[in-house]
Amino acid sequence: MVINMAKFKCFLITFIFSFLIGYFCLTNLHCYASSDENNDNNIVKLNDNQKDEIENGFMNWAAKRAQLGGMVVSDDYFNHGAAGMGDWFANTPNGRVQVQNQGNPGSNHFKLHAIGGCIFGTSTDGKVGRDDDLDICAEEYQSLDNNKPMDKYLLADNGVVYELKNQGVLDETTGFCEYSDDGTNPNEFTQTDRKWVVSKDKAAQHELKKLINEYK
């Protein structure tokens, strides 16, 4: 059997090149996922004023997005009525994000902390763009159409935007859980089906990273 050395060399080079390209792509995809979502080095310690500035900058961007879509966006993404003294948090793929600090168990207990957030929806009175004065009664959004899509965005200090789409009606407490008064027991039983995901909204992810990078 006669082997055509020229063809064999061409095949060998092509095989090695394809293998290296495949390995490079897989490695970079893995690194991107790790660095973009799971790397603790991405966490930025922010004071309250810095968080407010980042949230306001994100809301300005979100208002333009909402206006283009004929929707309304508000920073009234979280609140609660009478409750205990435990901290409130959101369950995400990267761990619990503290959204309200009452010292039980306290800020240091959480790896991730909320910068802010927003909710997108369709106004019942025709408003579009930003509206930080929604009609809310008993944590329910009275001025948003419950028959149309609503999305909550949560901005965390690891530079990731988490998203919660409505599975039924959303209210201000939807997606959030509270620790017991002594900070020892996270009461997660009411929100087992409302876990946040890393948002696939690339524009939102880019905007948060751009804003948070100013404080690194």
Radius of gyration, in angstroms, nearest whole number? 22 Å
Give the overall silhouette: globular
The major beta sheet can be summarized as: 10 strands, mixed
The strand count comes to: 12
Coarse structural class = alpha+beta
- Give the helix proportion (percent range): 25-40%
Structure description:
By secondary structure, the protein is α+β, with helices and mostly antiparallel strands. 31% of the residues lie in helices and 22% in strands. It contains 3 helices and 12 strands. Strands 1, 2, 3, 4, 5, 8, 9, 10, 11 and 12 form a 10-stranded mixed beta sheet that branches. A two-stranded antiparallel ribbon has the order 6-7. It is globular.
